[in-house]
Amino acid sequence: MNDKLAKKKGSSPLYSQIADDLRFKLLSGEWAAGEKIPPELELCTIYNVSRITIRKAIDELVREGHLYRERAKGTFVLSVDHTTEKEHYTMVRGFTREMEELGKTVRTLTAHVQLIHASERISQQLGIENGGEVLQIRRTRGVEGSKAFAYFVTHIPYTEKFSLDSSDYYGSLYEYLKKFNIVLSESKEYVEAVMATPELQAILEVSDVTPILKRVRMVSSSDGQYKEISDCYYVGDQYRYYVEM
């Protein structure tokens, strides 16, 4: 893994990259629920980093609820519940492209763009100065003939070439970025079930007991620097997340 860690200026912190890698191992089932993960010193050797860096990566996963520590025993994997299968829309690539392949016409019901100062989390993941300027794009999306079943909150590093007119973001974001020769080469994602917060209830018109699937998508360019971080929320009984390896 160490040869994949991006150490260039502007790349995400090493601990964040390691947390990403560990997160995908957890979500892919490499370690079963209740299983002890490798000790910190072994992870130091695997990633060729300091123990402090490993500890920060593990701390992040503990806060997210993927791992837990037991004194004098080690760090273990928390169990994850899986819901039963139903008919859903399927995600294999970008949202717009996948819906079109299913014969569905994608609709963006609302789009709102604003220039903001990045939070600590967004700053770290995008590899920018803490509080640096980022473009925040909030969109509700669905398919023709239905109400919105997806809500995206996207952050990208801001440059003056990006429009601040919300009407420019009703189409595919990736097609928009291509206009500026921004080529995205690799993405990392993880999914989790979350509660429908009051904000999500209002935006997606669901009740507080409606299951919500949260997908966090981190997309990088060929130099390993993240160019997009998206928090995506889907109505759980209308969408299936699918990955083909």
TrEMBL record:
Transmembrane segments: none annotated. InterPro entries: Bact_HTH_transcr_reg (IPR050679), Chorismate_lyase_/UTRA_dom_sf (IPR028978), Tscrpt_reg_HTH_GntR (IPR000524), UTRA (IPR011663), WH-like_DNA-bd_sf (IPR036388), WH_DNA-bd_sf (IPR036390). The keyword Amino-acid biosynthesis does not apply. PROSITE patterns: HTH_GNTR. GO terms for biological process: negative regulation of DNA-templated transcription. Keywords: DNA-binding, Transcription, Transcription regulation. Gene3D superfamilies: Chorismate lyase-like, Winged helix-like DNA-binding domain superfamily/Winged helix DNA-binding domain. The keyword NADP does not apply. GO terms for molecular function: DNA binding; DNA-binding transcription factor activity. CDD domains: WHTH_GntR. SMART domains: HTH_GNTR, UTRA. This is GntR family transcriptional regulator. The lineage of its organism: Bacteria, Bacillati, Bacillota, Bacilli, Lactobacillales. The gene is yvoA_7.
